[in-house]
Amino acid sequence: MSEDDGFRQAPPEEVKRLLDEGYELIDVREDWEWQRGHIPGAKHLVLSALLANPRGHPLPGKVVFQCAVGERSALASEMAVALGVPEVVNLQGGIKAWKEAGLPVEKPE
Predict the structure, then answer these.
(1) SS3 category, 32
(2) What b/e sequence results for 30-43 when a residue is b if at least 16 CB atoms lie within 10 Å of its CB, and e otherwise?
(3) Which helix (H) or strand (E) segment is 91 a member of?
(4) What pLDDT score does 3 carry?
(5) Where are the domains of the chain?
(6) Residue 23 per-residue DSSP state
(7) CA-to-CA distance for 59 and 78, rounded, in angstroms?
(8) Looking at the annotation, which residues are catalytic?
(9) pTM, whole model, 2 decimals?
(10) pLDDT > 70: what percent of the chain?
């Protein structure tokens, strides 16, 4: 865990393990990005919606945030920490790193 931010940065393989252990994955990319493909099981919550109304979007106690390359999801992670979420992880490198690791991506039906 980063002392400065209060959340962990984790590579795709570790995030996969965390998801298998019950962490919830939240994809904070824009709608058009989501439509191009997302990590199976991810929930979609656009970052701007979370930032505009942080308390209006209840977050689980163990959460991984993800975006395209890890920058927007780091902002979401900071917000979650500020809201008191106990276990917050940011997917290092975002969905780009996830794909490069050969992990699955699905498109909405």
Answers:
(1) helix
(2) beebbeeebbeebe
(3) strand 87-91
(4) 43
(5) 8-100
(6) P
(7) 13
(8) 67
(9) 0.93
(10) 94
